[in-house]
Amino acid sequence: MSKLKCLLVLSIFVLFTGCSQPPESGINSIEVPRTIDSDIHLSDIAESVNLVQMETNNGSYLTAILDVKLFNGNLLILDTSGSVRIFDSKGNFIGKLGVRGEGPGEYSSAYSIETDQELGLIYLGGVRKLLVYDKNYEFLKEKKFSDFLHYIKIVDQKPILIFGRDWIPVEGGYSNQTILFELNRELDITDSILFRNTILKKANGIRYTSKHFLSNTIDGSFLYAPVLTQENILRDTLYKFEGGSIIPFVKLDFEEPHFDENGNKGVDIYNIMHSSSYIICEYARNKDKKFFIYSKKESQGYNLEVGVLDEDDQPVVLRPLDLKNDIFYYIKEGEFQNTGIEELNPAIGIVELK
């Protein structure tokens, strides 16, 4: 991880190439056109698709799913209720992770979850607390923080935490900061990086519900942190952890216009995900959801409305499950049936891309 070296690289790059102009640093650029491609089905790009119906019974009901992790053959599902529920590979409900509460070893609400497959550990971010569980879902330890913990990822076998500090009064307005902390296995902080410092005229903070800031692939680890507040630059670059620094890796060259006649952003980038064979971007143009998927093998990109079409010709958004092996998941909601009964849980599609 980096300190001043990382900040210097980022400051120079953002100053000269952070806007919508072509990068002068020589990094690769991938064109994202305004035109929408013909419909792309999962069968066109997937090696396999496995649709798993999540069981619905007492205690297993899911609201809106925020994240899914694969751990020891089971699915850990974080939803907007702030709980993590555990299902097996066939969708059978196993139980809940941890205990909700305010005491030691408890969490009031879960906002992020990560797994360390090699060590058999689960990391849960609960507001201002990081909790660790073993492979049997038993609580091991915790660490408290003064800031809101937004995101957790394991990089090079070390926990990386991302915090957002918003609405800090500064000269000329307010500062929104994105800060990374590196921890060791004992949960001690070993390094920190101020990755981004956005200055706004008014106090404002907007966050996307599905957070996929860090991508681990066979080629290394990659970072994209969105800025969804109004500003006069387009955050269109994916970064890479390399040699102790965070450096620009690839630019998504969105076709103009990027802003309307009043200077408001016309393109909002929510996530840029990097797998071993694909680069995927969730974004909106003029508030309409779009989905861009780029095959590195074929050097071919597809710009789609909302998402890839499933077997029912319904658009679905692919989100990361195992990026080293090009495995993603999507959510398949059940059809609305009766307001008088509890609706079925959604199904989760597990997709291995070609």
Short key terms for the protein model shown above:
single chain; 354 residues; mainly beta; Neuraminidase; 5-stranded mixed β-sheet; 4-stranded antiparallel β-sheet; 29 strands; 5% helix; disordered N terminus
CATH class: Mainly Beta
Given helix and strand content, the structural type is mainly beta
Provide the gyration radius in Å.
Answer: 20 Å
Q: Which term fits the overall shape?
A: globular
Number of strands: 29
For this structure, the CATH topology is Neuraminidase
CATH architecture: 6 Propeller
Explain this structure.
With 354 residues, this protein is mainly β. The protein has one domain (4-353): Neuraminidase (6 Propeller), CATH 2.120.10.30. 5% of the residues lie in helices and 50% in strands. The chain has helices at 4-17, 42-45, and strands at 28-32, 46-53, 65-71, 74-79, 84-87, 93-96, 99-100, 106-107, 112-116, 121-126, 129-133, 139-144, 149-155, 158-170, 173-183, 189-200, 214-217, 220-223, 237-242, 245-254, 267-274, 278-285, 288-295, 300-305, 308-309, 315-316, 319-322, 327-332, 347-353. The strands form 8 sheets. A 5-stranded mixed beta sheet has the order 1-20-19-18-17, covered by helices on one side. A 4-stranded antiparallel beta sheet has the order 2-29-28-27. The protein has a 4-stranded antiparallel beta sheet with strand order 3-4-5-6, with no helix packed on it. A hairpin with a 2-residue loop joins strand 3 and strand 4. The longest helix is centred in the first third of the chain and has 14 residues, at 4-17. Mean pLDDT is 88; it is low at 1-24.
